[in-house]
Amino acid sequence: MKIILSGGGTGGHIYPALALAEVIKKHEPDTQFLYVGSERGVESNIVPATGMAFDRLTVQGFKRSLSLDNVKTVSLFLKAVREAKKILKEFQPDVVVGTGGYVSGAVVYAAQRLHIPTVIHEQNSIAGVTNKFLSRGATRIGVAFDVALSQFPKGKATVVGNPRAQQVASLKSNFSWRQIGLRDDKQTLLIFGGSQGAPAINLAVIDALETFNQRSYQVVFVTGPKRYQNVLDRMTTQPAENVRILPYIDNMPEVMAQTDAIVARAGATSIAEITALGIPSILIPSPFVTGDHQTKNAQSLVDAGAALMISEPSLSAITLTQAADTLLLNDKVSEAMAAQSTKIGVRDAGERLYALILDAIGE
Ligand SMILES: CC(=O)N[C@H]1[C@@H](OP(=O)(O)OP(=O)(O)OC[C@H]2O[C@@H](n3ccc(=O)[nH]c3=O)[C@H](O)[C@@H]2O)O[C@H](CO)[C@@H](O)[C@@H]1O
Q1: What pLDDT sits at residue 70?
Q2: Is the keyword Ribosomal protein assigned to this protein (predicted)?
Q3: Which residues approach ligand 1 with their CB closer than 6 A?
Q4: Phi, psi at 142, each rounded to 5°
Q5: Is the pLDDT score of 60 beyond 80?
Q6: Ligand 1 centre and the CA of 65: distance in Å?
Q7: What is the predicted ipTM?
Q8: b/e map of 248-276 (b: 16 or more CB within 10 Å)?
Q9: pLDDT (tens digit, 9 = 90+) per residue, 274-287?
Q10: 139 is in an annotated binding site
């Protein structure tokens, strides 16, 4: 079987596609994959590092306001569709799978024009612009949240969860905190603001450092690759031996599997991973996303008793450390939350999406 995968711009769209590929390879080891991403997106680093074949297109996102730049965006999009058609004709995939982001718009649209079966995957509770645009021509649509079903053409979408959840849940982690200079006999809190890092979370953690330094639990603080130096420059207190500050974690599934509690944005893929592993969490939704979808993502966990939420305006060193203490110093709360988080996790999401892909090819 030959499959083209496309999704980009941000980790939340890329990791689900790679996790899906892992499931398909288990079923059909001879499958040939080609990932088509944007040359400027983080996928151009993340995907080749996994050894998967990668092809690049030049695309750019739309500005939300009326702008001359959008004219350039449209012409780049049409050029990307032409380039994508060339790639498709050469590779001759049985199916094209899009996981969101502008680049998947060009690749999946090109496939639809060439009458190649297409499957799109929507990770969020509120569908992204690209997936909405592609949904009319898509052969099958997989969504992670029930509430997303009604946002797509009737009868076309199926709830499958997020393939990254299956990947993290099925992994045997050999990771030891000693690999980053911490201890394995202590509880560990992992803090990260999505795949890019989040300035508001970084500032609150910098302010909270003095408190975290004195805690009995360990803290791993991931700043985001581009924000690492800025965090170091702003720190007035140095981290104690129970705190580590890192720019990015490449082996997140292994690390998360050993984590006792998480502070994170409420991006859909982060949430899928957290619930797949049944980890208690403190979610701080990004206020800068379409339809405020991260608050809705987070609310579904809070309603189930699986997470605490701090809105960005109420985020401070005090609210953050209080919430962290609640999860790490109170076993009853964290055990109850872990149980609820486990209940929400969809640990066979990769299989479900794979079944949709077979349906699409067979149609
Ligand atoms: C600002 C923005 O537009 N965010 C969107 C983006 O978020 P973003 O790209 O942050 O996506 P998610 O929070 O969903 O996922 C982040 C991914 O990056 C991984 N990770 C993170 C840090 C790290 O050091 N190493 C690492 O591997 C996480 O394990 C996870 O797999 O895509 C998501 C879709 O899936 C959306 O729900 C988010 O609203």
Answers
A1: 74
A2: no
A3: 10-13, 15, 123-124, 164, 192, 194-196, 222, 248-249, 252, 265, 267-270, 273, 286, 289, 294
A4: -110, 135
A5: no
A6: 25
A7: 0.95
A8: bbeebbbbbbebbbbbbbbbbbbbbbbbb
A9: 999 999 999 999 99
A10: no
Pocket test for ligand 1, best of 270, 275, 299 (most atoms within 8 A of CB): 270
Instruction: Specify which residues 32 forms β-bridges with.
Output: 2
CB-based contact 243:212 (threshold 8 Å): yes
Query: How much distance in Å is there from the Cα of 192 to the middle of ligand 1?
Result: 10
Backbone angles phi, psi at 259, to 5 degrees: -95, 140
Of 74-78, 212-216, 247-251, 301-305, the range with the lowest mean pLDDT is 74-78
Q: Which of 265, 325, 323 is nearest to 297 (CA)?
A: 265
Residue 68's pLDDT band (cuts 50, 70, 90): low
DSSP alpha helix (H) spans, 123-250: 129-135, 163-170, 199-213, 228-234
Residue nearest to atom 30 of ligand 1 (CA): 270
Instruction: Calculate how far, in angstroms, residue 270's C-alpha sits from the geometric centre of ligand 1.
Output: 6
Give the whole-angstrom CA distance, residue 116 versus residue 129. Answer: 21
Structure tokens at 263: 């502070």
**Domains and their CATH numbers in the chain:** 2-162+347-362 (3.40.50.2000), 177-344 (3.40.50.2000)
